[in-house]
Amino acid sequence: MxxxxxxxxxxxxxxxxxxxxxxxMGICAVEPIKSVRWKALVAKHCERFEPAGPSTVEPRxxxxxxxxIIR
Length: 71
Prior knowledge:
The protein starts with a strand and ends in a 5-residue tail after the last helix. The chain is α+β, with helices and mostly antiparallel strands. It has one domain (3-66). The longest helix is centred in the C-terminal third of the chain and has 13 residues, at 54-66. The protein has 2 helices and 5 strands, in the order E-E-H-E-E-E-H. It has helices at residues 18-21, 54-66, and strands spanning 3-4, 12-13, 25-28, 38-39, 44-45.
């Protein structure tokens, strides 16, 4: 299994919890524990990863950059 980032996954959302998103974290649609937040940019092994297209990933990255979460 390869390393992946949540920001690159179709099941990840920064919109669902804006407070967590401001800290660079978001929600996984298939996470059974609804209070869990995942770091968008940390590489990890994930069996549930589903690649998102550039039209999804690019706006996420731009938003994270605009909030100075990434530079």
